[in-house]
Amino acid sequence: MAQRHKAIKATLEVGTAGEWNDDHISDFTDEVNFEYSPLNQLVADIWDTAQTAGGTAPAVAFTDHHVSVYFVTGAITDQTSSMRLMMNGSAGDITYIDDAPVLSFALWLDAYHTADNVAEFGLITSATALFTANQNGAYFRINGNKIYSVTGTGAAETATDITPLTGIPEYGHYRIELGAANCKFYIDDMLTPVKTETLTLPTGDMTAKFTIRSKNNVNSLMYLDAVGLTRNRYKG
């Protein structure tokens, strides 16, 4: 949380208790930050898994000497493993484009069918059915062994192949920066976006959502290490 100061003090300058209490106040007009690590919290504490169908609901696991959230679909076509960030203990949307949300996460894509639409993760309207076209949101999609940046209004979408030259990273760091004028997508390099999209930006409320799906009876496996979300307060 930001601290706002009315009085400027030089280094080592002595202040009074009265000045501190009067001049240092919490500034709720700046940013609200959220961080999730499976080292510290169970999935069920803040994530809803009700959209999981057929697959195993995501859960904290210790795999390959590492703690992460484990997603597994099972080797039957069209089973899903999914979780979405809750609002006040139940499924719901938590942010909007005017909040200028920035979603960052670390993800390990372990196994999936390479010829179909098998994963989507990012900012998506909570109640929307998984893998439907034209979802309201800004997110990444894995389809045909390529990774796409996707922005959608709920009625139309723009999907762009942003696969790195080295292919989809098995373990990657991802970021989505959504603003009123554009949406920036990052993979590993957090300084230079792989895509800046200005079309079909989301028009409704969203939450953070992570989903994998099985295709052609191929089991999909995914591990989520950490999630961070920054939202600027709405000033409209």
Kindly list the characteristics that best describe this protein.
single chain; 236 residues; mainly beta; Jelly Rolls; eight-stranded antiparallel β-sheet; 2 helices; 18 strands; globular
Structural notes for this entry:
The chain has 236 residues and is mainly β. The chain has one domain: Sandwich (Jelly Rolls), CATH 2.60.120. Helices cover 5% and strands 48% of the residues. It is built from two helices and 18 strands. The strands form three sheets. Strands 3, 5, 6, 9, 14, 15, 16 and 18 form an eight-stranded antiparallel beta sheet that branches. Strands 4, 7, 8, 10, 11, 12, 13 and 17 form an eight-stranded antiparallel beta sheet that branches. Strand 11 and strand 12 form a beta hairpin. The longest helix is centred in the N-terminal third of the chain and has 7 residues. It is globular, with a radius of gyration of 20 Å. The two termini are 21 Å apart. About 3% of the residues have low confidence.
List the helices and strands and how they pair.
Blueprint (H helix, E strand, L loop, with lengths): L1 E4 L11 H7 E4 L3 E6 L6 H4 E2 L7 E8 L2 E7 L7 E8 L2 E2 L10 E10 L5 E8 L12 E7 L2 E7 L4 E5 L9 E8 L4 E5 L7 E3 L9 E7 L7 E12 L4
Antiparallel strand pairs: 1-2, 3-18, 4-7, 5-6, 6-18, 7-8, 7-17, 9-14, 9-18, 10-11, 10-17, 11-12, 12-13, 14-15, 15-16
Rg (C-alpha, Å): 20 Å
Number of helices: 2
Strand content: over 45%
Can you tell me the CATH class? Mainly Beta
Portion in helices: under 10%
Order of helices and strands: EHEEHEEEEEEEEEEEEEEE
Mean pLDDT value: 89
Oligomer: single chain
**Unreliable stretches:** 21-26
The CATH architecture is Sandwich
**What is the domain total for the residues?**
1
CATH topology value = Jelly Rolls
Number of strand elements: 18
Which term fits the overall shape?
globular
Please give the largest β-sheet: 8 strands, antiparallel
Question: How does the helix and strand content classify structurally?
Answer: mainly beta
